[in-house]
Amino acid sequence: PGSTPSIQLDHFYAYDEIKAFARILTGHIPIYVFELKGKSREGREIFLLTLTDFTTGEAEDRPAYVAYGGIHAHEPASAHGPFYTALKLLENHQAGGDLERIVFYLIPRLCPDASEFCIETSTRV
């Protein structure tokens, strides 16, 4: 697998940073799958990160854990949670571990348009 990125805690992730961070994780296939699950009204992609060990079975055959960030626009730090979860799962992956038994569905930001507005303008909506 490729090297994992570090989470930056000194600022809120803007949309382009979320997209770049998620794409870096694609170096961890067959553990990680990066998918586009939709687009916002302003055309920003909404990403789904699927983490499981695909060499030991199908994601659909496993219990699922879902975590998402960015439900509310004025909570931009919530994107860090799904990314932190992904990094810890990748760092701690071992034979017989969680990724062989569970599928993790992680969405870093559900509300990319309003979140981006809040980050750029330091206001709330």
Brief description of this entry?
This protein has 125 residues and is α+β, with helices and mostly antiparallel strands. The protein has helices at residues 15-24, 80-91, 98-101, 112-121; strands spanning 32-39, 45-51, 64-68, 103-107.
Structure, described:
This protein is α+β, with helices and mostly antiparallel strands and 125 residues long. Helices cover 29% and strands 20% of the residues. The chain has 4 helices and 4 strands. It has helices spanning 15-24, 80-91, 98-101, 112-121, and strands spanning 32-39, 45-51, 64-68, 103-107. Strands 1-2-4-3 form a 4-stranded mixed beta sheet. The longest helix is centred in the last third of the chain and has 12 residues, at 80-91. The relative contact order is 0.23.
Which terms summarize this structure?
4 helices, 125 residues, four-stranded mixed beta sheet, elongated, single chain
Mean model confidence by pLDDT:
86
N-to-C series of helices and strands: HEEEHHEH
CA-to-CA gap between the ends?
Answer: 40 Å
In quaternary terms, these chains amount to single chain
- DSSP helix count? 4
How many beta-strand runs? 4
- The geometry reads as elongated
- Tell me the radius of gyration: 15 Å
Strand content: 15-25%
Main beta-sheet annotation: 4 strands, mixed
Helical content stands at 25-40%
Structural class of the helix and strand makeup?
alpha+beta
